[in-house]
């Protein structure tokens, strides 16, 4: 048996899915991400390997600036990849607002899952001041 000090254990690599209202600041988006991370002890900003959002939101200035500030790649998920006819059972909560505006049943949760192949939802949708955040990562 090998003993490993807790500080030497590799941190989980996570993907953050983000949805937001137009005009949200980088600080508001970062605050929402921090709130979602706080829901799962042991997760930190340094564990994020990428941020994913819906293709329609990928050019949102606050989101782009937040990702650039932290060096996180921003991945745009095509609406077709999370279309309402996609297989159910991914554990995401439907959003009537996302469906009305974009024709999808959610943004943050399905985008996080789509950008984390073989991952699972670690933190469900967290809503903070017009920003939605979900976290996916290894099972």
| CATH architecture classification name | 2-Layer Sandwich
Total count of domains = 1
In round numbers, the mean pLDDT is 87
- Euclidean distance between termini CA atoms: 24 Å
Oligomeric state of the chains present here: single chain
Helix segment tally: 4
Strand residue percentage: 15-25%
Poorly predicted runs are none
CATH topology: Nucleotidyltransferase, domain 5
The main sheet comes to: 5 strands, mixed
| Classification by helices and strands | alpha/beta
Let me know the number of strands: 5
CATH top-level class: Alpha Beta
CATH homologous superfamily grouping: CobE/GbiG C-terminal domain
H and E order:
EHEHEHHEE
| Strands ordered across the widest β-sheet | 3-2-1-5-4
Residue share in helix: 25-40%
Shape: globular
Radius of gyration: 15 Å
Question: Brief description of this entry?
Answer:
InterPro entries: CbiG_hydrolase, CobE/GbiG_C, CobE/GbiG_C_sf. The protein is α/β, with parallel strands linked by helices.
Task: Explain how this protein is built.
- InterPro entries: CbiG_hydrolase, CobE/GbiG_C, CobE/GbiG_C_sf.
- This is Cobalamin biosynthesis protein CbiG.
- It comes from Burkholderia gladioli (Pseudomonas marginata).
- Pfam families: CbiG_C (PF01890).
- The structure is a single chain.
- The protein is α/β, with parallel strands linked by helices and 139 residues long.
- Helices cover 27% and strands 24% of the residues.
- It has helices at residues 26-38, 61-70, 96-102, 108-114, and strands at 14-20, 48-54, 74-77, 120-128, 131-137.
- The protein has a five-stranded mixed beta sheet, with helices on both faces.
- Helix 1 packs across helix 2 (61-70).
- The model has no long low-confidence stretch (mean pLDDT 87).
């Amino acid at each position: 048996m090998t003993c490993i000090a807790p500080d030497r254990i590799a941190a989980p690599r996570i993907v953050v899915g983000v949805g937001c209202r137009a005009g949200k600041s980088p600080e508001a988006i970062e605050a929402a991400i921090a709130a979602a991370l706080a829901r799962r002890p042991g997760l930190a900003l340094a564990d994020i390997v990428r941020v994913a959002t819906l293709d329609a939101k990928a050019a949102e200035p606050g989101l782009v600036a937040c990702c650039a500030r932290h060096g996180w790649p921003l991945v745009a998920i095509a609406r077709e990849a999370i279309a309402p006819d996609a297989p159910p059972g991914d554990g995401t909560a439907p959003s009537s607002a996302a469906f009305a505006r974009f024709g999808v049943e959610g943004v943050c949760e399905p985008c996080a899952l789509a950008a984390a192949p073989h991952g699972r939802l670690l933190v469900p949708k967290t809503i903070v001041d017009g920003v939605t955040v979900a976290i996916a990562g290894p099972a």
